[in-house]
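Hello forum,

I keep getting stuck at the same step: I have a sequence, I want structure tokens, and every attempt I make locally crashes halfway through. Rather than fight my setup again tonight, could one of you with a working pipeline run this one for me? It's a single chain of 224 residues.
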Amino acid sequence: MINLDDFNELVLARRSMRSFLSTPVPDEDLKRIFETAKFAPSNCNTQPWQVCVVSGETGTKVQQALLASTGVGKFQLDFPFDDSVYNGEYKERQVGAAKAYLSAASIAREDTTGRNGFMKSNLSFYDAPHAAFIFMPQWCGVREASDVGMYAQNLLLAMRAHNVGSCPQTILGFNADAVRSVLNVPSNMKLLFGISFGYFDPQHPLNTVRTERASIEDSVSFYS
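Reply #2:
Ran it on my machine without issues. Output:
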């Protein structure tokens, strides 16, 4: 029987880490993590995810491609991203999270150089030794995207169970062509996002940030 306390602790232990050690995750552990993640549910068991894991020299090439494109404002997204649609509590949550991380990084709101540097650290995987790029086939729609989301959550929890930290990053998909070019991925595979991952420094201020969560009274309705 599964120990529910252990599961709860695992879920609560998962957070988006933003400072990583250079030590790579052993290949055996990587395979175990991705073997576990593959058991995510999906519509009609289509399993519409395709994952490219980069490390070492290839990871550096992807970082360089993103810094040379996304890092200078050259975007090519397979799926739109428009945070201007965030209003009310949704905007408050976005702003609150940004403030928490910039504060932990000791970057003032008016520090444009510091903010730009922090943005570029996103594109360098926060110095993580690995990143996973999550693709799905061109024919997929919102239902398949939700399947990929469930797969990604499995992946993040499997990583944390191996004491591996992770950070899902929409910005790693801001120039999908650049990523496809380095990895030789066909154009009919569309990039949703990337996940930087590796062993993390638990004492680093960025890794101690806990973003707020809405109460279940605000997000869940029970009917009987």
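The longest strand covers residues 189-198. If your local run keeps crashing, start a new thread with the error log.
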